[in-house]
Design brief:
Length: about 325
């Protein structure tokens, strides 16, 4: 289709990419049309922007979305030294626990157990994708920046991301991964405790479960940092970051996106159509289509709104309107 809006050439190439040419779009038809995505997704006023949406000239008279948005600037300034310290500590502890657990797993691994490890890996991917969706949905939909502890420390990045989507591409390794790594620490810590205190027989009996937990922790971390290669080179390119990156991606990353092995750009763009009420899973995005068809998230929102009276995404909308 021809794009009706002004887009950078590389962005136009990605968004005009024939829909029949990707495995992802053949199997999982999007719930929003290309026209809806282009007309209603946010202007990402950034050198790495997805699209320079400007259908009406006067719309460009002031910042609507991106790093110049008033709400985005205010939210970015709320990133504190204390939060940075917490993220540094969590990244250090998590990476240490990952290395220790990996050494134990390699010690106990046997060739005949490889098939169960593959199953554990697939289960870990699916669980991580659902977990990413659940956390993403909860943080996008409920709560407020004014909440003690949680607001400025954990909900702030979600609000910022909706009004400045490519801010994630400017975050470093620590800011990108700190919270994800924090979530895995209790589970990785329990694994180390089991390896150190249980008998060899008990460890072997729990080996498949421990592999599942370990791989789940890896995939949770991979949601915001794509591979061990990235850990070593500190390029700061993540699965989620890659879904907002339209320039300079390696060919193998584009291949993985087109095959929907990792979160594709076209697929994740559906979530960034206001009011951001769908496609919350961001590890692989495999569960987005079935959950949407089941109306899983909207059903939860109806139940919660009925019980509490709180409107979904009220705080998210408040921050979006700060730029108007």
């Amino acid at each position: 289709m021809a794009l009706p809006l002004s887009c950078a050439p590389r962005v136009k190439e990605v968004l005009d990419y024939p829909i029949t040419s990707t495995v992802a779009t053949n199997l999982l038809a999007p719930v929003k049309t290309e026209q809806q995505i282009l007309e209603n997704s946010m202007l990402e006023d950034d050198p790495n922007a997805n699209c320079a949406v400007a259908s009406v000239p006067q719309e460009r008279s002031g910042p609507r979305w991106g790093p110049q948005h008033k709400g985005a600037q205010e939210l970015a300034n709320l990133y504190s030294t204390g939060k940075r310290t917490q993220e540094c500590i969590c990244v250090g502890i998590c990476l240490t626990l990952m290395v220790v657990n990996c050494m134990f797993i390699l010690f106990y691994i046997r060739l005949e157990k490889l098939s169960t490890i593959v199953v554990a890996a697939l289960c870990g991917i699916v669980t991580a994708d659902f977990g990413s969706g659940l956390v993403h949905w909860a943080a996008d939909t409920w709560g407020s920046i004014e909440l003690p502890i949680l607001g400025k420390n954990f909900l702030r990045p979600f609000r910022e991301h909706h009004i400045d989507p490519t801010s994630i591409t400017r975050h470093d390794f620590i800011e990108t991964n700190g919270d994800n790594f924090m979530v895995t620490i209790p589970f990785l810590g329990r694994m180390v405790w089991d390896f150190l205190t249980l008998s060899k027989e008990d460890v072997e009996n729990k080996f498949t479960w421990n592999c599942y937990v370990f791989l789940l922790a890896i995939f949770v971390a991979m949601t915001n940092q794509a591979s061990c290669y990235e850990y070593l080179t500190d390029l700061g390119k993540s699965i989620h970051k890659w879904s907002h990156t339209y320039f300079g991606l390696p060919g193998w990353v584009i291949f993985l996106q087109d095959c929907h092995i990792i979160l594709p750009r076209r697929h994740h763009r559906i979530h960034h159509v206001a009011p951001h009420e769908t496609y919350f899973c961001i590890t692989t995005g495999w569960l987005n289509w079935p959950l949407e068809k089941l109306r899983f998230w909207s059903a939860l929102e109806i139940i919660i709104e009925t019980l509490t009276g709180y409107k979904p995404r009220a705080d998210d909308m408040k921050w979006a309107q700060k730029g108007t």
